[in-house]
């Protein structure tokens, strides 16, 4: 009965302020859509960027040789440190906390030919562990380099997705032979298309990859050095410790001070990711605040309605007080009405937002810039957060009008016409 | 049951102080039938509001059933109004969006009674004022006399100690007004205490005690000897 009475009360208020309540519900709907969609776009973008980030690979560290800045054991400063193939083995043997490791040779402007097409692209020579560390995943029907390729210095080649398109078009590439600097190579795999945010030799989609041993045999007569080394520590939390170990081991071999931090260059992808995550969270919080502000403006509308309602119902409040209603009862009645209006607007907003995301999901995105934005995603957290925000808006906008109602003087209110 | 000693009610409007009640002493026994009379501005309504705990005096003592009530918290006053007072107003003061049944039920909701108990009490009361068949009607669908009977049912539903009526016949024609006064008389004869504001000598002549106010003071307070019952 009580609920029915309350519902009748709300209905009577609605008929008296139809236009105003409708407009406010619309404002609440809009505010909710704003907060949900901003957060959903933020979430979609975050997911897309994380995916793109994973294009670089797993929790890895990329290592380059630098230049010494401290004289050491009679050797001058300013010596350049260059890695040789055997350094990879040395690090692997000396530091058990390195789980995966690969050297990486690199040359720009190598010529690739297939039938009448000739293009000039970037070439790397790497170890099979690249597959896991740097996400060099082959499309169906192909494979990445393996140990036998390494051992036998096979002339096999793994192509980036776009590189394959340029050379082969729609034609199947795996098993075909192409010419790399006039030497025939067999295509063993094509990389799955990937978005890649971090890169140091240009995008993987345009890179050709061959076994490091093959590379060494063909290209290292004049320049025997590795471009860099990529490794993955067993425990990402121990990355700093492994870094010190690398300094120690290579410092011993190349005779530089292990404290000379310019002798080696590290790109700690793991640390970078932590910072990146914080930036993404910051963007999310910012978007949430923007949405929250929009919702707050709608809350002002609710408060306005409630003030008018309290004034209009002054007489009724007087009657109820005379019949023995406590102040809390009067207060709750108005607070519930404010919450009900907010909940209604919020429900409409949520429904609208869900519909928008469903529609956007169905629209294919071709534009590259838009691909980075991703598709809006309404996660459980977003729904919960919005519900909490709506609750706060409802209570906050209803609180002061309700308080005023509950503090009315019974005699004055009964006299009110 | 009501003991008032040197009650003052002063309205402080900032510039002027209005003395609505000045040094009122009043005793009311159980099962009295009282009318309060006086010209407008004499303090009738203020006195009624203070008796009914809708308002509190600015000076003096008011004991209801032996308990001092002038210094109570608004929520405690609300509880007294709910359990001990039954108000009947000149303009009925029914909630226009609620049905007859819901209007009568309201004090029981504030008293926190269960649905079952509420239904029983409301039906008893509607039966008593002879409007059971109107239970689902809205106040706007009732005549003035019916509305006032509903208001009386609402005032009685919580078994109050005192029934307070402020010009209960003021908005009714004389025939209907007489019917309403008959109900009050019947309530009195059943043991209720009834206090009623009126300016109609014919109505006050039916009560057993007449209190006349003038300028916030009791001018006259006497048993009604010309009572023709």
Supply the CATH architecture of chain B: 3-Layer(aba) Sandwich
The CATH topology assignment of chain B is Rossmann fold
Inertia-based shape of chain A: elongated
State the separation between the terminal residues of chain B, measured CA to CA: 25 Å
Compressed to H and E, one letter per element, the order of chain A equals HHEHEEHHEHEEEHEHEHHHHHH
Which structural class should the secondary elements of chain B be placed in?
Answer: alpha/beta
Task: Estimate the strand proportion of chain A.
Answer: 15-25%
SSE order of chain B in H/E notation? EEEHEEHEHHHEHEHEE
- State the strand order across the main sheet of chain B: 6-7-8-3-9-10
Helical residues, percent of chain A: 55-70%
How much of the sequence lies in strands of chain B comes to 25-35%
How many angstroms does the end-to-end distance of chain A come to?
A: 28 Å
Mean pLDDT of chain B: 92
Describe this structure in words.
The complex is a heterodimer of chains A (417) and B (229). Chain A is 55% helix and 15% strand. Chain A has 417 residues and is of the alpha+beta class. Chain A folds into 2 domains: 2-54 and 274-415, no CATH class; 61-267, no CATH class. A 6-stranded mixed barrel of chain A has the order 2-3-7-4-6-5. In chain A, β5 (177-180) and β6 form a beta hairpin. In chain A, α2 runs antiparallel to α9 (269-312) and α2 (18-53) crosses α11 (327-362). Chain B has helices at residues 44-51, 74-84, 100-111, 115-128, 144-156, 174-189, 201-204, and strands spanning 2-12, 17-28, 33-37, 59-64, 67-68, 85-88, 162-166, 193-197, 209-214, 217-223. Chain B has one domain: P-loop containing nucleotide triphosphate hydrolases (Rossmann fold, 3-Layer(aba) Sandwich), CATH 3.40.50. The mean pLDDT of chain B is 92. In chain B, 47% of the residues are buried. The radius of gyration of chain B is 18 Å and the shape is globular. With 229 residues, chain B is α/β, with parallel strands linked by helices. In chain B, strands 6-7-8-3-9-10 form a 6-stranded mixed sheet, sandwiched between helices. In chain B, strands 2-1-4-5 form a 4-stranded antiparallel sheet, with helices on one face. Chain B is built from 7 helices and 10 strands. In chain B, α6 (174-189) links the parallel β7 and β8 (193-197). Chain A binds chain B through residues 1-2, 5, 8-9, 11-12, 315-316, 318-329, 410-411, 414, and chain B through 49, 52, 54-55, 74-75, 78-83, 85, 87, 89, 93, 95-98, 102, 105-107, 109-111, 115, 118, 154, 158.
